[in-house]
Every structure is written in C-alpha cells, then in structure tokens.
Model the fold of this input.
Amino acid sequence: MNQVLNDGLATLGLSLDEQQQQRLLAYVGLLEKWNKTYSLTAIREPARMVPHHLLDSLAPLAHLDAPAGTRLLDVGSGFGTPGIPMAIARPDWQWVLLDSNHKKTTFLRQAILELQLPNVTVVSERVESYRPEAPFNVITSRAFAELGEFIKLTRHLLADGGYWAALKGVYPYEEIAQLPKDVAATDVITLKVPGVDAERCLVMIKEQGSL
Done:
C-alpha cells in the first residue's frame, strides 16, 4: 500500500511528508476495521481503498485556490471523503465534515481522534438545518447530490466570494445546464486518478455576483 500511495502522490504532483502518508494509511486501516461492522464503503480491500478513496479525494487538491486558514465544508461526508484525506494533506485548512447519518459521524469522530486532526470538526446534522457560527469559503462534496440540489441546500453556508467545488464522475452536462440562473460553473476540470479506471471531474461553481 505504501508504494501505491507513494506512486499515486507522485503522479498527482503532491508532496506529503512521512507522517502525513502514515496518517493516510492509518485512515485506510480504520476504514477497513469499521467497515466490517458498519458497512461504510463497498470497497473492502485496503489496497483498493488507496486509489479509490485516498487518491480520488486528493486529486482535486492542486485545483483548490485556498490560503492557510480557509474554512471548508465537506457536505454529506459519509466516511470522510474528500475531507479527511484533504485535511491530512493540508493541516492549515479548517474543515467541517457534515453528515446526518449518526453511524457515519460516529466513525468520523473516532477517526479524527485517532488520527489526531485538530483542524477537523464533525457535525451530525441535516445540511438544510445546519447553522454554523461562520460561513465557509469553500463547500465541497463527493457524490452527494446533483449540482442544482447541492447549491440549493448549501447556499446559506457559503461566504461572500466563496465557491463550491463538487467532485463528480462523468462530465455533468445536464446538471450544469440546470444550475440556478444566479450561479455559474466557472470551470470543469478533468481529473486523472492513478489506479481508478473511471471518469472523474471537479466542477467549480460561483455566484454570479462574485465572478
């Protein structure tokens, strides 16, 4: 697994230190352990979790324009992707992982504790009723909802000048065409994930007033 992770990070152009890499692999270990009881992911082999969960989550990293101290929200975080791998890779970002499934947030809280990630908070709540103390600069999701619904449910959580970054599979032409009139997809970036033989893209969306 170490070699698969090393090679994948090199292909993505990401430079993570030994401690960060060990934390990523420890996350896979936790996922495998909890998966036996909680059925968090359909992928059960740790060797496949590395490309499909770690590298898949980290592939968008170079495209997120966010300085240190940025507040990011991972909506429908599930078992922690992309939030946990990104939080390990960028400890200078402040993350909130949001999911309404208590089984999943129980795992997330334990993972944050064991991986020692002080830059991550877990919230177990429905997104439409979530009212944080401060809005978020970046809101992301991985297979959470179609884009229009994603925007509708999270609009109240976005800071002025912030943006949405949605991880998708195939290029979502129809979803982009049906976006609300006051937002726009500013970029759709094709992602090549090492070890994942499937289409991936990152859809960047902003409110029209902040373009």
User: Anything to note?
Assistant: The longest helix spans residues 18-38. Strands lie at 71-75, 94-99, 120-124, 136-142, 158-168, 183-191, 200-207. The chain has seven helices and seven strands. The two ends are 42 Å apart (CA to CA).
